[in-house]
Amino acid sequence: MFRRYSKAAVAIIVLLATIGSFVYFALHHPAVWHQLKHIHPATFLLLLALYGLTVVALLFVLEGTLELCNTTMDRRESLLLTIYTAIINFFGPLQSGPGFRAVYLKKRHGTKLKNYAIASLMYYGFFAAFSGLFLLSGLLSGWWLLGLALAGCAVVLLGFSMNVPILGRLKQLQLQGIFKLAVATFMQVSLVAVIYFIELRSIDPGVHFSQAVSYTGAANFALFVSLTPGAIGFRESFLLFSRHIHHISSSNIVSASLLDRGVYVIFLGMLFVIVATTHAKSRLQANT
Question: Is the dihedral of CA 234, 235, 236, 241 positive or negative?
Answer without folding.
Answer: positive
